[in-house]
Design a protein that fits this description.
With about 140 residues, this protein is mainly beta. The protein is built from one helix and ten strands, in the order αββββββββββ. Strands 2-4-5-6-7-8-9-10 form an eight-stranded antiparallel β-barrel.
């Protein structure tokens, strides 16, 4: 019994003396009022995979996307409204990432963190790790 108690005491001391290395990733997550303005409605003009040459753009014909300053994406098709979420991340080298999250298909196919280029007339997104390419044009 004494050996078990001694073993447990040594294990606790050993565990308490261990240190963890914490790696800090420099990203600024959007907070209220910090989102890059995306002022108009957009239609999806390209959803493809540059590695496999698959093009799935046709799945999104008729959808209109509106990015709100509250992190919500409102999508309308055939008088049906679907709400999703987006988040903007600014990396330490000032590169913009846009994360999309939807709960219903086919919109959930867009769920990813994308490298982003945003203007008043277009949004261009890419994910080099998967080959995904997503483009929106102002309506």
């Amino acid at each position: 019994m004494k050996k078990i108690i001694l073993f447990l005491a040594i294990a606790v001391i050993f565990a308490a003396s261990c240190t963890r290395n914490v790696v800090k990733v420099n990203r600024d997550y959007n907070t209220a009022g910090s989102l890059t303005s995306i002022p108009t409605n957009f239609v999806l003009t390209k959803f493809a995979n540059s590695i496999t040459n698959e093009d799935s753009t046709i799945l999104f014909n008729g959808y209109v996307f509106s990015f709100g300053s509250d992190g919500k994406v409102t999508v309308i098709k055939d008088n049906q409204t679907i709400i999703g979420n987006y988040i903007q991340l600014h990396t330490s080298n000032n590169k913009l990432e846009l994360g999309l999250n939807f709960y219903s298909t086919p919109l959930s196919y867009l769920n990813d963190y994308w490298w982003a280029s945003v203007s008043n007339t277009s949004i261009e997104l890419s994910d080099p790790s998967t080959g995904g390419v997503l483009e929106f044009s102002a309506q």
